[in-house]
Amino acid sequence: MQIIIQSPIGMSIRLDLSYLYNTILLKHPALNGYESEIIKSIETPFVIRRSLHDENVLLHYSIFEKRLLCSVIKIAESYSFLITAYPCDSVKKGETLWQK
């Protein structure tokens, strides 16, 4: 099953729930039970940056339990989708596309 999440920059982002549970949450068990926080980080981040390593990757940051949560979005030709999400301590360098 997939859901579509709207980013504040007007982008529709696909989230495949099977991929979320079977890949992302297995790689980052600290996020188990925080699926809604991942969605929130895409819908209402405090900053969106373009990756320095791939111009087709956007980093959406939100606050997550005294840390930050980074949701990594890939922009493909026909749609955009969540690659991964992970807790982190700082916002990575890159072009700021949107800021609250």
Give an account of the 3D structure.
- The chain has one domain (2-99).
- 20% of the residues lie in helices and 44% in strands.
- It has helices at 17-27, 35-43, and strands at 2-6, 12-16, 47-50, 57-64, 67-75, 80-88, 96-99.
- A hairpin with a 2-residue loop joins strand 4 and strand 5.
Key descriptive features of the protein:
seven-stranded mixed sheet, alpha+beta, globular, 2 helices, 100 residues, 7 strands
Count the domains: 1
Main beta-sheet annotation: 7 strands, mixed
Sheet/helix structural class? alpha+beta
Estimate the global geometry from the Cα principal axes. globular
Total number of beta strands: 7
Terminal CA distance: 31 Å
With helices defined by DSSP (H or I, 4 residues minimum), what is the helix count? 2
Task: State the helicity in percent bands.
Answer: 10-25%
Widest sheet: strand ordering: 1-2-6-5-4-3-7
Radius of gyration: 12 Å
Proportion of beta-strand residues: 35-45%
Q: pLDDT average, as an integer?
A: 95
Order of helices and strands: EEHHEEEEE
